[in-house]
Amino acid sequence: MIAADARRMYRALLRLLPRAFRAEAEPELLEVFDAGYARIIGGSRIARIRFWTLTLCDLLLTAVAERAPFRRSARVSVRTLFMGLTHDVRYAARTLIYRPGWTGLNAGTLAVGLAATIVASVLVRNVLLAPLPFPESEQLVRLREVSDDGGRWWPSFPNARDWRDQAGSVFRGVGIADVPRVRVVMLDGTGLRVSVSRAAGGLFETLGVHPLAGRLFSADENKPGGPPAAIVSEAFWRGPLAARPLEDLHIGVGDTQYAIVGVLPASFRFLGDGAAWTTPADVWTPMERDSDLGMRTSHGYHVVARLRTGMTVDRARTEMNALAARLKRQIHEPTQADAVEIRPLQDFVVARVRDPLRWLLYASLAVLLVACLDLAASILAQGLDRTRELSIRIALGASPLRLVRHLLIQATALALPAVVVGLALAVGALACIRAEAAATLPRLDEVVFDARAGALAVFIALGAALLAGILPAGVLASHRFTERLRVRGAGAAIGSRRLWPALIVTQVALSMLLLVGAGLLLRSFVAAVNVDLGYDAARVIAVDISLPEVAYAEPARRIEFYDRALERLRANPAVTTAGLTSVLPHETSAMTAPTFRDSANARSIFAAYRLVDDGYFEAAGIPQVQMDRTAFRAGGALVDRTLQRVLWKGRNPQGDRVQNNFSDRVLTVAGVVGSVREWNQDAETTGAVYVDFHSRPAATGAMHLLVRYSGTEQAAAKAIREAIASTDPIVPIAMAPLQERVTAGLADRRFLLILASGFGAVALVLASVGVYALVAFGVARRLRESAIRLALGAPPSTVRTGALSVGLLPAAVGVSIALLASVWLGRALRSQLFHVNAVDPLVLTCAAIAAIAAAWVAAALPARRAARVDPADILRMD
Amino acid sequence: MQSSHRESRLHLPLRPSAFAVLAALAERPLPGIDILDAVNATVPGTPLLGPGTLYRLLRELRQQQLITRVDTAAADERQAHHELTPAGRATLRAEAARLRRTLDLADGRSRTGPR
User: Fold this and answer.
1) Chain B: closest CA distance from residue A65 (Å)
2) Given A24, A35, A62, which is nearest B52 (Cβ)?
3) Chain A contact for B32, CB < 8 A?
């Protein structure tokens, strides 16, 4: 850069300084700059960077110091700061009490913004940041197997046991548990459907869980053939067990009577089905008592470990990978554990909600910012009414610092009622979230509104009040304004021409961005609801059946039960069709395994493994069924369209062979059926392999009946109850409409949507209030001008249009900025979107129309007032 | 002299940057850039002052009547020079003496201070 350019640039930068200062100092500043710049010409790049950095810092410092409202009050001592403080507080309180409408509106606005921020920050703090409720929980990690092809697997029991026994230098303890399963537990002769998990030795010790009563499993109990002992949850102990003393308390699980030795506290949480962080099983039995815990390829165990003190995750990973490689060399069994994935448990538990909660926090901060700007605009507008009072204060010798303090105290005084209302709103909102999102947010039960949350609320409120107060304080106590008041008294015009539009632009842009976010989520939600599931959940009841294990120990008896129950159901006129399945259509859970053609080294994909009867497809409404019924009943497998597309490239697979790792044999394909969307609606379809349940009687302890009905739901439910009771009255069942269970899969999306649209709507209302205050203020400021124009014969419509444009022009600028920013927002939100483009014209158009309409309404009222003023009244006031 | 001495004590203690500016002007009147150099040479590393902060400081010292602007007969007429006033000189001297006493105290050479 040549010297002349540099000089020009510096001169432009000098505009940061107040005009008066510039007029006085510019020649000298330029002179010093020139001399300094002459020295760095030809110097190194570092010297040049250093020079410009120092010059910029110097300019900014000077600009801030020169523009600070209290620069004239040379030295501010602590004493002067507190002089008359009580007076200011009293005065502020009086001002607020005498203007209840103004106070209510502003405190309410701030309260809404505060409530949003408090809710979001409490959720972020308790769910994302707070350590898990275990001692030294930062040492807890979750382990998974990693295969050479990059696949990540829930560990198998033999591998996890080897890790526990051979990685003592890495872990202080390794805990293994299986996924809870609903089983029939016999208590005093009655069968109860209860979720049952098994814990290998060291699980509770590793986590650091202490029993509420009794003890944990002993080493003996967790050995093959050890004494049968069970631990129950507090809820189960207080509920069905009626909190009886543990001595001589027994329950029957399967064909074994277990002595209850301990009770786990209600606060205990662990990984459950689908690895959700949830209330764990009601009954725990010792895992290693059982002999059949699967091969090294039987995945499906939760493995957590506690790192030794001083052990980092990275080092643990290195050591465990070495151990995995060594084990692989030694055991000569097929295994997917080529390496070990180690991930902090907390990180894993909250991974799913990290993004939504982060977005929630951002959205709430945007709402709070809009509320702050509202309050700032309102205080500023109020300042207009008070120019007379302010000018008297200045005439009596109030320093600008005192004015700043006065205005800040007023904003803070507003914050007090706002905190109270905001806290009440936040507590209410958290209660709603707890009721609505219990299944969506992990650790929601840990969310408590404690003293810390209260302190945080007060802190945010004070920060917001100061933020809202500092802007009007800066303007009203600015040197230029006070000088004008000093010279011209109360008639002085106030503030700068650029500030109001900037406020409107910011508010409209922020609230429109929130609307765009809410709109995108709404479109995703609608898309998710309308997505073709591949089955028809309407008018279908899903019945969960768990057969009592002792009475149905014989596999043939199970088959007989299901066949008879299906027969009775199908004979009932209230029932259209009925079918049987091991897994409901929307939940794949852990029953997904690699699937490939033949057993050669063919390509494998993950596919669900399901035991069904041939009536299932009709009952579930799965279309495009082409099956060879005889081949299916003879032990053949049906594959779905996804598998056909991926494994057979769309060719007819009938007669070909397929293997799913859950099955112990290679199956012959007996037909093709339509694909079903798995897990929940947003996930892409995985494939599925269907096998006739008659050919696998051993795995039919717990099944689901799907019953399609034509009459009323009550009639169908009655028919189901009767059919099961007449087949075998001791079999407990649970039923719910299939649609209800499918909708539960949308809970995540609905939760985020409700919050986002709530925030969007609140921000829009707040922004409208703000635009109203700002336009009202702008119009009032130009009342005299309007009066003169009217007096000179201007038609009221011109005055009205002028006043409208005060609000609408900046709003249009705000909308344009938000349109640009929403491109970025859409991209950033992409992970939360479903079947919606990041830039969605419909959403953008609607949000823009809503924002402009709100600004229009907010500006129309003051504009009408401006057009109706009586010029004589206004001009007489001067 | 007595009154000027009393006046000079009004400004004590001086800020380090103000003291450095007065000290830089002790010998002869200087233009802004030379003052900046002299002041920044007193501390190694990041400069104490930039043009803007220097200008504010000079203005403050002028308002306190410790320095004054002078027209010199230099070749370049644009360059404004700054010069110490008698009050400025007295203040500089008083501050130097105060600092010297402080140094003595630190070195344990003060007659009144602890040994």
Assistant:
1) 9
2) A62
3) yes
Using CB atoms, which residue from A17, A28, A58 is nearest to B50?
Answer: A58
Q: Tell whether A32 lies on the interface with B, counting CB pairs under 8 A.
A: yes
- Considering only the C-alpha atoms of chain A, give the largest distance between any 2 of them, rounded to a whole number of Å: 105
Phi, psi of A762 (to 5 degrees): -60, -45
Distances (CA, A) of A99 to A92, A95, A107, A114, A492: 11, 6, 12, 22, 24
Question: Domains of chain B, with CATH numbers?
Answer: 2-105 (1.10.10.10)
Q: Which amino acid is at A440?
A: T
Contacts of B63 in chain A (CB under 8 A): none
Q: Where are the alpha helices (DSSP H) in A678-795?
A: 713-727, 738-744, 747-781, 783-791
Here the tokens at position A115 are: 């409530």
What's the angle, vertex CA A322, arms to CA A318 and CA A323, rounded to 5?
115
A26: contact with B, CB 8 A cutoff: no
Question: For A151-222, where are the E strands, in sequence order?
Answer: 152-153, 171-178, 181-187, 190-199, 213-214
Of A739, A606, A741, A622, the residue nearest A676 (C-alpha): A622
Structure tokens at A700: 């039919």
Nearest of A757, A770, A835 to residue A514 by alpha carbon: A757
Q: Verify whether the Cβ–Cβ distance A31 to B31 is below 8 Å.
A: yes
Rg (CA), chain B: 16
Q: pTM here? A: 0.68
Question: What's the whole-number mean pLDDT along residues A769-789?
Answer: 74
Asked if the C-beta of A165 comes within 8 angstroms of chain B's C-beta atoms, the answer is: no
Mutate to test the interface with A, among B53, B69, B71 (most CBs of A within 10 A): B53
The tokens for A76 are 């501010």
Most confident of A211-220, A405-414, A734-743: A211-220
Residue of A nearest to B56 (CA): A62
Whether the Cβ atoms of residue A403 and residue A481 lie closer than 8 Å to each other: no
A318-356, pLDDT tens digit by residue? 999 999 999 988 888 888 888 999 999 998 888 878 888
Residues of B in contact with A35 (CB under 8 A): 33
**Nearest-CA neighbor of A296 among A446, A412, A174, A147?**
A147
Q: Which of A709, A58, A88, A183 lies closest to A408, judged by CA?
A: A88
d(CA A65, CA A88): 26
Work out the burial of residue A148: count CB atoms within 10 Å of its CB; fewer than 13 is exposed, 13-18 middle, 19 or more buried. exposed
Residues 34-93 of A with CB under 8 A from B: 35-36, 54-55, 57-59, 61-63, 65-66
How confident is the model over A735-751, as pLDDT tens digits? 889 888 877 767 766 77
